[in-house]
Structures are given as structure tokens and as C-alpha cells.
Amino acid sequence: MRSMVPDYLADALADVEPDTSGALADYIPELAAADPGRLGAAFATVDGEVYGAGDVDVELTIQSISKPFAYALALADRGFDAVLAKVGVEPSGEAFNEISLEPATGRPRNPMINAGAITTHALAGVAGLGPAGRVERVLDGLSAFAGRRLRVDEGVCASELEHAHRNLAIGHLLRSHGVLTEDPDAVVEGYTRQCSVLVTTRDLALMAATLANRGVNPRTGERVVPEPVVRQVLSVMATCGMYDAAGDWATQVGIPAKSGVAGGLIGALPGQIGIATFSPRLDQHGNSVRGVSLFGRFSADMGLHVMEVPPPALGVVRAHTVVGSGAEAVRVVQLQGGLGFAALERVVREVAATDMPETTVALDLSTVYSVDDVARRMLLEVVRRLTLDGHDVHLVDPEVLVPAPDPGDGGRVTVVGSVDDVLAARRHRAAESGAVR
Amino acid sequence: MRSMVPDYLADALADVEPDTSGALADYIPELAAADPGRLGAAFATVDGEVYGAGDVDVELTIQSISKPFAYALALADRGFDAVLAKVGVEPSGEAFNEISLEPATGRPRNPMINAGAITTHALAGVAGLGPAGRVERVLDGLSAFAGRRLRVDEGVCASELEHAHRNLAIGHLLRSHGVLTEDPDAVVEGYTRQCSVLVTTRDLALMAATLANRGVNPRTGERVVPEPVVRQVLSVMATCGMYDAAGDWATQVGIPAKSGVAGGLIGALPGQIGIATFSPRLDQHGNSVRGVSLFGRFSADMGLHVMEVPPPALGVVRAHTVVGSGAEAVRVVQLQGGLGFAALERVVREVAATDMPETTVALDLSTVYSVDDVARRMLLEVVRRLTLDGHDVHLVDPEVLVPAPDPGDGGRVTVVGSVDDVLAARRHRAAESGAVR
Amino acid sequence: MRSMVPDYLADALADVEPDTSGALADYIPELAAADPGRLGAAFATVDGEVYGAGDVDVELTIQSISKPFAYALALADRGFDAVLAKVGVEPSGEAFNEISLEPATGRPRNPMINAGAITTHALAGVAGLGPAGRVERVLDGLSAFAGRRLRVDEGVCASELEHAHRNLAIGHLLRSHGVLTEDPDAVVEGYTRQCSVLVTTRDLALMAATLANRGVNPRTGERVVPEPVVRQVLSVMATCGMYDAAGDWATQVGIPAKSGVAGGLIGALPGQIGIATFSPRLDQHGNSVRGVSLFGRFSADMGLHVMEVPPPALGVVRAHTVVGSGAEAVRVVQLQGGLGFAALERVVREVAATDMPETTVALDLSTVYSVDDVARRMLLEVVRRLTLDGHDVHLVDPEVLVPAPDPGDGGRVTVVGSVDDVLAARRHRAAESGAVR
Amino acid sequence: MRSMVPDYLADALADVEPDTSGALADYIPELAAADPGRLGAAFATVDGEVYGAGDVDVELTIQSISKPFAYALALADRGFDAVLAKVGVEPSGEAFNEISLEPATGRPRNPMINAGAITTHALAGVAGLGPAGRVERVLDGLSAFAGRRLRVDEGVCASELEHAHRNLAIGHLLRSHGVLTEDPDAVVEGYTRQCSVLVTTRDLALMAATLANRGVNPRTGERVVPEPVVRQVLSVMATCGMYDAAGDWATQVGIPAKSGVAGGLIGALPGQIGIATFSPRLDQHGNSVRGVSLFGRFSADMGLHVMEVPPPALGVVRAHTVVGSGAEAVRVVQLQGGLGFAALERVVREVAATDMPETTVALDLSTVYSVDDVARRMLLEVVRRLTLDGHDVHLVDPEVLVPAPDPGDGGRVTVVGSVDDVLAARRHRAAESGAVR
Prior knowledge:
The structure is a homotetramer.
Chain A: H1 4-16, H2 29-32, E1 40-45, E2 50-54, E3 60-61, H3 66-78, H4 80-84, H5 114-122, H6 131-146, E4 151-152, H7 154-162, H8 165-176, H9 184-195, E5 197-199, H10 201-212, H11 227-240, H12 246-252, E6 257-259, E7 264-269, E8 273-278, H13 289-302, E9 317-323, E10 330-339, H14 341-353, E11 360-371, H15 373-388, E12 392-396, E13 414-416, H16 419-436
Parallel strand pairs in A: 10-11, 11-12, 12-13
Antiparallel strand pairs in A: 1-2, 1-8, 3-5, 4-5, 6-7, 7-8, 9-10
Helix pairs in contact in A: 3-5, 3-6, 3-11, 5-8, 5-9, 6-9, 6-10, 7-9, 8-9, 14-15
Protein name (chains A, B, C, D): Glutaminase
Organism (chains A, B, C, D): Desertihabitans brevis
Family (chains A, B, C, D): Belongs to the glutaminase family.
């Protein structure tokens, strides 16, 4: 069978191709000379598969799409407190190049506007690193997100530097507020190099997939940034990534995203997928016209909106039975699906509501396929409370979803590979017990 | 076993209780006279269980928490286009009572600031409804969200009306821009009645759970608003619900939420839970101090952040085997967990990568516990493509997760209750085939 | 001889008549139905002569031109402190209908924008006056400025009230800040009546002339407001009268002015003239197109710019002679022109630099035509110091420009009608002295 | 006699000396180290007399007081159109260091805020001048205003440059809008040099007096800038010179003024006087605390407010008589005072209202002390119209206030030195006439 995913992507591109509205960025000759007809889209899964259609191997400059990644690096390198002290997280409701500093402190409102991104660049790498070191750190970091060595387009970079007056203004303003403490010219130059990194749409999809995959590049397996950083970055992308169209995007597309002036656009859906598109003509917000259309279609077709209410699942308690009778009776609670707080709450509720004369209780995870942290803790508390109620608790966990379970404080649990093991053990004990008696 | 959820809630309340920072709203005597020590929290699950601790049955006025619900009603009653033409969805980065109209059109930036909420109130109910009818519609709608008949606190309402100068200013401004076309005094009065509805923390949790449950009240089973409305409302709560603290909330708590000046605070996590807290002292943003603390704790403890990357799941393909041999051989692909785009992509990839000499292919959903819309479509496309490749495709779907499957256009599928049914059928056919030969 | 002033006015009107650019105000039918071709201009001198050309007797509604006059009445009725506590004097750089309140206090930035004018209306008359009393007070006051009984155009007023949403918004906002303490609906209605007063261009010129004439109507002789009020009003007109075109006006025209949406425009040049024009088509700032042209022309042709440096005057000391000799010698310092600080400084300097052996000194004001307050004080100080130096000082003041001169503290002066009187007196005394000796 | 002006100044200083409120500017060490007790005030008359009291010979850096003078130089060097295309004239209602650019064009709102002053610096000198040339031009120009060679305080300049981040930000922003077309670093450096020029309070008074004296330095007699430039500069000082306190200043003091962060403050009253004060402690607007007090006192004591309505003058027509009778009768209209439009209007009115059987009319200017341009033109028109009415017109103008009078188009006038000359001439002609008869 041939996969339908490439077909889907190709169909989607064909649908948006006729739309030639929007205009190229033209503030530097290199962008103004781009081929406006370029069109590409790629999906990268969290296990590293990449699907592409169209111009996914054509290089473009990353531009503002570097912002969330550099923010991730700064958070990883300096810690949350140091970064939040310098750059806020509030949506500004303003265009990308608005200066938008908080009146009293001069702190940029968020890392997605230029003021915030310039400040963020200065926070990449360990404190005290010089300008060259910072650029190196950012280039290394972006490369790690992409899973291959990236390089700067020196021609674009030089041209951007010649037109960097507004960013230089922002840099000096940040310096005047003490938000920047370095030479603003050098920081702006470094930021400009960051924006001039060349990537393909395929790279961008993998970079987004690294965010979707908790900070681990799904191809190289490298942990690029820690998990809490990813959550922060995705949250900021969700509220501030699309500038003054943030609300439209959040309601209609609902995928944490970031666009670049060269026509790139990425989206990352936590745990699921990284998406990238490339089409250079921009709308009045500075976002790729056809990229926005494609994301709208992807979101609708694939149910990728973060506020999409998931479909009603089958009950987490797949079966609740008593096997055997008398002293050999074993109560088996078979769970299924992905276990989180909501699922465990139902387990707890069912267990709490049940009168359990049986000594042995088996919690069967053999048809469970994931257990998150809170579910693990609640499950162990169920074990502990059942122990305290006098039960002999078994955890059927053939896939080791709950490694080394420790219910703590009076709890006790026996881990087995199947319900049959529980029954066998129970029979054995009943026999012993009978022999003794 | 006793459930640990009430214990957890009680512990959480005990932790935040000593915090007496913040101040009561004092613009009307009724709010200034509230008991500042009130403290309560409730969880409502999407199947209608409500856990509460503290003052969850004390009545408070709903105030701004009515905004997302009234917005939902307006969207349901008038349709998206009519409402979006009058009220935007962009975060304003401003305080709740900022006027924040779009300069050219006078359209309020979003429905969570007062200007947007006043406009939204005017859009509740069918067009042409008078002021009294609108209030009735809103009261009915809020009651449906809560699952019981709510009523207005006439004393608070009268007092609010005496201090409604700013809202009246906003109303007249909206009227001057033609955003409101009705008498602004009447609209503001209606809006004030809406804000004066009495609710308990328990009610609020159920209202939030109705949003989390795709618009269906989990207790009464009533569909209050359609699903697309819920997605819109949650998206807007996520970006604009906490006023000028929206970014902090989005990064740190990550639960679509709304606060009210009487000390209420709700959060709704799609598909999972509705949460409500009550504590009247407010921070400088107008949000309940202890409510904000509680939500931070709930989010961290229970992994409720919308950008929380879910834990790595076991592979969607639980087993991929060939049963039998020769003409009787059946290829069985056993899936597990919740199926969405990402899961199906892996199924597609595995199927596409496999050389399948067997005529009969069984897609086994018996350990699957949910199938979303895109997964269903992709699954059917897999069926169709396998049919076109010459396979005889069976869907093992004992729980009827894919009702009436129609792969369309050349596809064909046999639905059975177990893999054994497939094998039996295959054996039968092989026998027939042998007999014929 | 026929005066050339009417010819000049007629020529000016003829020059601007072909300009049909701009547009009628159209927010109410009455203004939209105005005859756009109307054109008139009038000059009123500070002694009450009125020159007019064109439609100077056609009635128009006064609209915003009422603002400086109502401000004058409020200052007169309540005092500076009470008014300044409620309305600022800073130019806002904003359009007439911008809300422009000071962020913390809600105080409107100045009395020429609507927010300030509405507040000002509420401050007209003694405190505690009801709405009807305030309107009566304002109507009486405007009538006193015009020198005839004015009346409200009830049709326009009713129509304005139907479209007063923005002003009502402002009123409620002011009420919410406690800037207004009355019912804002009533204040806005009163303000609307104030704006609906009917005037002719001739009236407007006389109203402006009353300001130019230190607050005394030059026709009726009635003191409408005290002098310090006039200075305040003219200052505010100079900086805030032309809204967001204030700077252009201040540099190019330089006459304190105020425009109205019905096409009126007034200017008042302190001590010189009141000017009014009428032409209903407005520019984008809301100022009469042809009115602005006419004022530009008047200012340039007649040197009316307040920053126009006056022509170099002949020296204030017309002659400085010694008449007679010996004991009969009298030193005569003959002054000329208008005496102010700068003139007196030169007198002082000359007197201080002169060695004066003569006992008798005559300060001759017979060719002086005005003496301001500081000049009077300095002149008396010269007298005092000369007395203390042993001189016998005479003031020749046939026109009684310095009534009842009191040099104080050791000074002494003899007032006479001519230098001859001094000489005669001196001769007489010398004779007496000789007789005694 | 000793002049009372120095006494007045000394008294004024003594009155404000105890006020030690306010704070030194502290953004550079040099300003923070200033002696806060310094206090000085100087008056410079338009004929070059300078009165000083206190620290009038202590050097301070000119700082923002250079702004109006550099603006004057730019207007003189480049013309109004070129300068107005780059810098507006609207008050911004904002603090001195607000960026305040017009949104669309990036044009600074006025030349008194830093953005406008930086732009203005770049417009000094002929186009194409390099940075050094511009600084030289400004230094020459400031020196010409002061009447002595000024120099830069290199220490202050270097220190300012180290803290010029905000100005550099503004410079780059202006460059990004194309308002600046030069290297912004160089322009800001030049501007900083301009602000670091050392002056004394005495210098500042003379610089102000040069503005008051129509652009001619009253000491050196050098015309520094043309008259129309002075009017523009004074107008902009009047509306924008005191930043966000512009309205307070305009109403309470009413003297076009400019303050500097080193504690200097100047005011120029057209045709009258230049004033400067020096006291380094600043209020929250950045204006010298004691300087503001002193100006308030000077304005009140000396009637220097530009909106001060001048005192009622004696009638411009001092006498209107007929001398002689019959054929020898001569109508003599004796004028007095300073003649402007308002005065001439009355002359015209009187002449127009008078039935004049006499052939000979004498307009007697012997007690007039100034005639402005419009008065001259009106006077000549009176002459022309009287000629056309058949009169034989004489102008008695002993001081040559109307040189080379040309009434044009049918008018004719005989200039004489005294009324006696007219009478003599008339008698002579009557005699001739009689002889003929």
C-alpha cells in the first residue's frame, strides 16, 4: 500500500497554489528577489518520519522562525528567572516590529517581537560569552533542533545589516533601559546572523517536531532543551507567535506557530507533529499567505487544534470482574487507554464505590498504552489505600509502564506480567493457607 | 477505599489558606462587604462527578465569569460571522476595564474585556429580541451550563447599576461606532443583570465541565452549545481570559480560564475537567489571589497544562502478526490506545512499508479506546487502498468505534467482533475455494 | 473718503470663494443640509465697530466655538482653582473627539476637546445650579459676549441629541472618574444646547472682540468676564483651539482661535480685534477650509501673528533737555509712545546714567499714549529714587495717564499739565528763594 | 539715580533662593556633580543692555536650550519647506525624551523633543555638509546668537556620548524611517556636541534677546537669522518649549521659553526682552524649579504674558482740527502712539466719517513713534483715496517713519516736517491763487 500522507500534502499544495495574493518582503534586495512561486510543506512526526511535498529542499533564511528556538536556548542556558526578568510573555496585540516595551522597565513584552528576540539573542549561551560565542551557541542550537549543521547566508546577513536601522534603534533603546547590558550594535549583528541562517522546509518541520517531541530531536535522539523549556516555548508561540493575528490564529488554527519574513511558517503540536510550510508572499501581518491557508486546512482536516475536545473515549475501566471464588477470589480491574488525571479519577471513583470483600486485587494495565506522571502517582495512592484497607494488591504491567512502583507509607504492591500470574499466586497462597489451617 | 481526590482538594485549600494578600473589590458596598475568608474549590469531571472542598455551596455573583458563557450563547444564537463582525478575538494586553476598541471600526478587541462582553450580551438570543428577552435568554443559557435554575441577586444588580458609569460610557461609545445598534442603557443594564447572577463554586465547576465536555452538560446531558462554539470559547479564554496577565497564565497554568471580581475563577481543560475556585481577595489584575495559587498547583500537580507534551505512548501497533499460513494466512495488525492523526500516520507507515502477500488483512481495534475523526478517515483510506491492492480487509471492532465504515470509491470492508471471526471466515473461504477446485 | 476695510474684506472673500474643497459635517441631517456655498467674514474692533462682507447675517449654530466662552464663564463663576482641578490646559495633539483624559485622574486634558468642554459646561454658573440653570447661565453668558439675546436652534439640538452617543460615552466616563458629579445625561444635554446656540458671523466677531477687549463687550460696555479669565482663555485657545492642527495654526496664523463644525471660525487678537469667518466645508481636522485660508491671509496682511516682533519704535526718550540755567534750570525728560517694562527700562537706564545737578526734574508724558501697570510702578520708583537723591520731581501728565501717583516711602511728586507749568513753578520758587536769601 | 532693575533681580533671587526642591539631573556624573545651589538671572534688552544678578557668569552646558537656536539655523540654512518636511510643529503633550514620531511618516512631532532636535541638527548648514561641518555650523550659529565665541565642554560631551543610548535609538529609528539619511551615530554625536556647548546665564539672556530683537544680536548688530525664522521659532517655543508642561506654562507664564537639563531656562518676549535663569535642580518635567518660579514672577510683575491685553491706549487720533478758514483752511489729523492695523482702522473710520470741505489735509505723525507694515499700507491708501476725492494731502513726518511714501495709482502726497510747513505752503498757494484770481 502506498501511504496517503504524501498524497494529502500534494493535494493541499495544489489547492492553495493558485492563490498569488500577498507580496514579497522587499526591505532587502535578497528577499525582494525571491521566487514568489515557491511552495512547499512538510510534516515531521515525533518519531522522525518526514513527509514533504513541493519545494521542501529549497533553502530559505529562517528569519523570525529562529525566535522560539533562540528563546528555548536562552531558557535552557540561563534559566527561567534570568530570562523572564528581561523578556515578558504577554501578547502585545501589535505588529512584529512594534517596539512594545513595558513602560516602566523597558522589558520587551514577549520574545516573539523583535525587541524581545534581540534581548533573547543576548541571553543565549552562558553569561559572559562574547558576541561571536553567542552566535556560535545559537547556530549550534538551531542545528541541533534541525538535526544537521546549518549555516548563515552571508549575503542576506550583510544586506540585512545594512537595513537594520530599526533593530539598531531597538537595541539602543534596550541598552538605555539596561535590558541589554552589552554593546547593542554587536547584539543586533548577532541577532541578524541568527535570522540569516539557511534552512529548508524539511529542516523547519524537524525543528518543530523537536518541540513537539519534548525537546528531543526525533531523528538524532539528541535532547536539545529540557521539557519545561518546551512547554514555555509552545505557550508563548500559542499566544504571541503570530503577532497581531494571534487571536485569529489561536481560534481558527490553534497550533502553536511562528512565521518568518522569508515565507517560512512552522507549527508544533505537542506530542504529535511538527509542520512547516514555505511560500514567500506575505499578508499584511507579515505571515505567508499560502502558509496560513495550509495550516488552516491541516488544522481542520486533522483535528490538530489544541482546544479540540478529544473524542469521547471508551471507559478507562475496560473490565471489572471477580475471578474465582471464596478465598481464591481475585478482583481484577482492567484499565485501558492512556492514563492521566481524568482517567485515574474514574478508576478511583469506581474502586472507592465498590465493596471489595476479596483480599486480592489486581490492577491490570495490559491494555493501557501510556501513564502520565499524575496518573502514576494516583495509581500508587490507590495501591497504598487498598493495602491499608487490608488488600493484597497486584499490578499487572507487562509493558513496564510503571517502573519500580513504590506506593510508600504502608503501601505494598506485587508486579506481575499477567492476570494469570495473579491467579496462580493466589491459588498457591490459598493452598498454603489451607495446608496450614 | 476512600477516594483521595477530596483529600487532595482539602490539602490544597489548607496550603493556600494562610495567604491573606490582595483586597476585596470595593466599587460597590455588596462586594466590599463580602467575607474575605471564603475559600472553596471544586472539580467537575466530564461525566458529571463533582468534588468539592471548602465553601463550594456559598453563593457569589458570577461577574466576568459570565463572559465566556454569554459569548458561547451569542455564537450559538447568531453564528460566528455575525459575532466576529462585532467582537474581535485578539488579546489586548490590557486591563479588564480598558476600552480597547479597534481604532477604525470601534470593534472591541475581544469578548473578555468589558466592551466586548457588553457587545456580546447584545448578541445573545435571536436578533430583534428586546432587552428583557436577552436577559432571559442569557439566564436560561447560564442555567443550562450550570444544570440548575440560576437567579439574579437584585441587590447587587441595583448597586452595580448605580456604579455602572464606565460601562455606560463603553455602551455609548459602542453605540456611536454602530457596534451596538440598540439603546446602550438597556444593553448595559442587561449586561449588569448577567453579571449579577448567583452561582456556587460547584455550579461554576459544572459550567466549566460543560465546556470541557464539548458543550454538553455532564449532569443533565443537555447540549447547551455546539462543539465548534466550545472550541472558539476555549481558545478565546486561553488567550484573553486573564486580561493583562494572559501570558503569565498561559505559560504557568496553561488552562483556559476566566475570573470574576467576586472572587470566582474557572478553568476548563478540553475533554478532561472543569475546575472552579472561590476566594474574594483580588490581585492587581483583578484575579483571585488564592484562586490563582490553586490553579497553579492544580496545573503542576495534575499535568493539566494544554502545552504539556503527553507522555510517550506505547506504539500504536501493539502487534503485527501473520496467523496461519498458505492460503489461510491472515495478516493481523493490532492497534492500541487512542487513535488520532499521529497514531494513524504510524499505522499507515507500517502498512505501507510491509510487503503483504496475504490476501486477508485484519485491522484489529479491540484494544483501541478512541478514534477521532481524522483517524477514522485515514483508517478507511487504508482499507480502501488495501482493497485496491487486492486485499480482503476486515475491521475487528467489538466496541463499534468506527460505526458503519464506508471506505468509498473501490474500498470494501468486513466488520467483525474478533480476530477469531476473521480466521474462521478465512478458513471457511479457503475450504470453499478448495472444494471448488 | 470711503473706508478700505470693507473693500479689503470683499477682496479676501473673492479670493477664497473658488475653493470648494472640504466637506460638510454630515453626522446630523441639519448640518448635512447646510448651504455649502455660504461665505462671510467680519472684523469687530475693540471699540465696537464691525465690518462685514458676505453672509455675515446668516445664522449658524455656534458648536465648538462656544467652548472658549463657556470656559470663560466657568472660570468667572467658579474660580481658577475649581476649574483647573477638573480640566487641564495641556494641548493633546489629538482630534476634537478624542477622549484624552489624564490616565490617573480622568481629568480632560483641555477645555477645547469635547471631554473638557462637557466638564466645563458643568462648571458654568454657581455650584449647585441644576441643569436648566446651567443652560440658562451659559445662554446668558454667550448673549453677553455677543451683545444681543441669543437663542437655541431646537431642531439642531434635538438632532444632535439623537447622535450624541460619543458625548454621552464621554460624559459617563467623566462621571466614572468623578470628574463629573452630576448626572452625565443632563450635562451632555446641556452641553448640546450650548452648542446649538444660533449666532451670526457678526455676533461671532463681537464675541471675539469681547475677548480682545479684556472681557468687556465693546458695544454694550458690559464686563462679561474679568481680565485674568480672558488671558487664560486666550492662552488655551492659542495652544489647544485648533485641535491636532494647533501647531500649524500657531506657527502660520498665530491668532488665538476656535472653530466650529457648522463652519464658523473666530480669532481674537488681544487689544486689537475680533475676527470671525463662516464657510461650512471642513478640512480633515474639522476646521472650515475657507475660514483657515482667510485667517492665514488676515494674519499675513495685517501682521496679526502674536509672535510678530513689533517694528522698532522711536526711542521712548523723545527729548532730554535742560531748560533754563542756574537755580532755575529744569531737567526735562520727554517720553513718548506706549510705556511698558522695556520702555521704562530705557528711561531708568538713561536717568541712571545721567549726572543731574539740577534740582528740578520733569518727567514729561505729554506725548505718551499708554502706560501699563509695570511701567507705572517703575515710573513711580524713578520718582521716589530721584526724590531721595534730592530732586524735586514733576510729572507732566495732561491726559492723566498716571492717576493719583504715589511714589511711596520717601518719594514725592508734583503733577502738572505742561512743562511750562514746571518752569513757571520753578521760576516762582527761585524768586521766593532769592527773596528769602 | 541708581537703576532699580538690578535691585528687582536681586530681590527676585532672594525670594526663590530658599526653595531647594527638585533634583539634579544625574544621568551623567558631570551633571550629578553640579553645585545645586547655583542661582542666577539675567535680562537682556533688545538694545543690548544686560542686567544680571547671582551666578550669571558661571558656565553651564546649554543642553536642550540649544534646540530652538539650532532650529533657527536649520530654517535659515535649508528653508522652511525642507525643515517642515522632516520635523513637525505640533505639541506632543509628552515628555522630552518621548520618541513621538508621526506614525505613518516617522516625522518627529516638533523640534523641541529629542527626536526633532536630532533631526534638526542634521539639517543645520547647507545640504551635504559632513558631520564635522554641521557641528562647526551650529557652534558658529550659537556663538552668533550669544555674541561671543562659545566652546564645547569636552568632558561633558564624552560623558553624554557614553549615555546616549536613547538618543542613538532615536537616531536609528529616524534613519529607519528615512527622516535621517545620514549615519545616525554621527548625527547623534554632533547633536551631543551641540548640547555640550558652554554658556553663561548672561550668554543665554543675549541669545534670547537676539530672538526678541527679530534675529539681530543686539550687541554685535549681526543678523543671525531672518525675521520669519524668528517668528517660527518663537511660535514653536510657545507651544512646545516646556514639554508636557507646555499648557501650564502658556497659561501661567506666557513667554516663549526653553529649558535645559543643566538648569538653564530662557524666555524671549518679541520686541521686548530676553530673559535667562540658572538653577540646576529640576522638577519632574525636567525644568529648573527655581527658574520656573522666577519666570512666573517676572511674567506677573512685568506684564510679559503674550496674551496680556495691552492697556487701553489714548485714541490714535490725538487731535482733529481745522486750522485757518476759507481757502486757507487746512484739516489737520494728528495721530499718536504706535500705528498698527487697529490704530489705522480708527483713523480710516474717522476720516471716512468726516465731511471734509477743505482742500488741504495734513496727516500729522509728529507724535507717532512707530508704524508697522500694515499701518503704512493703510496710511498710503488713505492718502490715495483722499487724493482721488480731490484733496491735497500732506504727511507731517519729522522722524521719517514712512520713508519714500508712494500711495500709488492716482495718489499723491507731500511730505513735510511740521504742520507749520503745511500751513505756510497753503497760505502760499492761497496767495498765488488769490493773485491769479
